[in-house]
Design a protein that fits this description.
about 350 residues; Trna Endonuclease, Chain: A, domain 1; six-stranded mixed β-sheet
Length: about 350
């Protein structure tokens, strides 16, 4: 660098102007590479879609039955691989066909996502689920591994179970909008990434540490807008030093979010304690332009009747939610969701 500076001074070139020149050229090529990557992705995605279109139209024209359709894909995979090399396996061709069937109009397919994203999205079992994850992947800029994790953790079903039919349809069409404190609650929160065995007798501190050590994955589970503030946040109250397990700031709702972890069942005393923390934050921590803080008591179990009485009369944004250390059974969640949607339809007919 010293040699460059010396040469510039010898040539009579001001160093600051030279640095600006280098920066502008560097930015130019970075932008050009980004545009090229977007263009390549668009072309590849469109080619995959058109390949699926050709296959479906060929099947329909020849009235090929399902059992012969498999043989068609096997033969196509062999012949196209011989001509073009990798990328034309039977599996890939199957998903290209699925891509066209899921998006009969090419313009309804977002080019903000890659073919790898769509490969995972097309594994969804119904259109509502596919549309939800597509919008969330775009809105939250999920990488492939993040998308796979959210599908595997049945995020759509977990959020949808807290909504009515109309809201479920909006959820599928637009993704998950964070508008109120209620929108950040999942039930249950899935914390399988902690690596804590479900049968192990663990302490709350172990769970807390595991969440902090896996903060990126925990933030993904919490959802959009969470920024980590601290662990074991200290609050001097009445001559005592009280601590809340985890504190976040929600950038969309413009408020603090306090989380207290409970290894076993949530007790009524836990509600009063969290209410105390929220009152302290409103008085001592929140800035004038902050919205009121949100408190979440997160435990392995809860008694619905006990919680109804414990939360009665509380004006703060205080929620109780369950967590589990294993992935939920999607079939069970989907069955619950189907029941709610079917009951809603039956009610409308009465």
């Amino acid at each position: 660098m010293a040699n460059i500076v010396n040469k510039n001074s010898q040539l009579g070139i001001p160093q600051q102007e030279y640095d600006t020149l280098v920066e502008r050229i560097d930015n130019l090529w970075s932008a050009a590479r980004n545009r090229a990557a977007v263009a390549v992705n668009t072309e590849l995605l469109d080619a995959n879609w058109e390949t699926g279109q050709y296959i479906v139209e060929f099947e329909q024209k020849g009235k090929i039955r399902a059992e012969y359709g498999k043989q068609l894909l096997i033969r196509l995979a062999r012949d196209l691989t011989a001509r073009r090399g990798k990328g034309f396996s039977r599996s890939n061709l199957t998903y290209m066909r699925k891509l066209y069937l899921a998006f009969p109009k090419c313009e309804t397919m977002s080019h903000e996502l890659t073919w790898s994203h769509y490969f995972e999205l097309l594994k969804c079992e119904n259109e509502m689920e596919l549309q939800f994850y597509m919008h969330e992947a775009i809105n939250q800029k999920w990488k492939i591994r993040e998308l796979k994790r959210q599908i595997k953790s049945s995020l759509f079903q977990r959020i949808a179970l807290s909504k009515d039919k109309k809201s479920v349809l909006v959820l599928a069409q637009q993704g998950h909008s964070i508008m109120t404190a209620d929108d950040i609650i999942h039930d249950p929160f899935v914390l399988e990434f902690t690596g804590i065995p479900t049968k192990k007798r663990y302490k709350e501190g172990e769970l807390e540490k595991a969440l902090k050590d896996n903060m990126e994955k925990f933030l993904l589970e919490l959802g959009r807008g969470f920024a980590f503030v601290g662990r074991q946040y200290s609050m001097p109250i009445g001559g005592r030093n009280m601590r809340v397990d985890l504190v976040f700031y929600h950038t969309i709702l413009k408020c603090y979010v306090l989380i207290d972890l409970k290894r076993d069942e949530i007790q009524h005393g836990d509600i009063g304690q969290m209410n105390l923390y929220l009152n302290y934050f409103k008085a001592e921590v929140c800035m004038p332009d902050d919205n009121p803080p949100i408190g979440i008591v997160l435990g392995a179990r809860r008694d619905e009747v006990l919680m109804d009485y414990a939360l009665g009369g509380i004006t703060n944004h205080l929620f109780v939610a369950r967590y589990q250390l294993y992935l939920p059974k999607k079939e069970e969640l989907q069955a619950q969701l189907d029941k709610i949607l079917n009951e809603t339809e039956e009610d409308s007919l009465c």
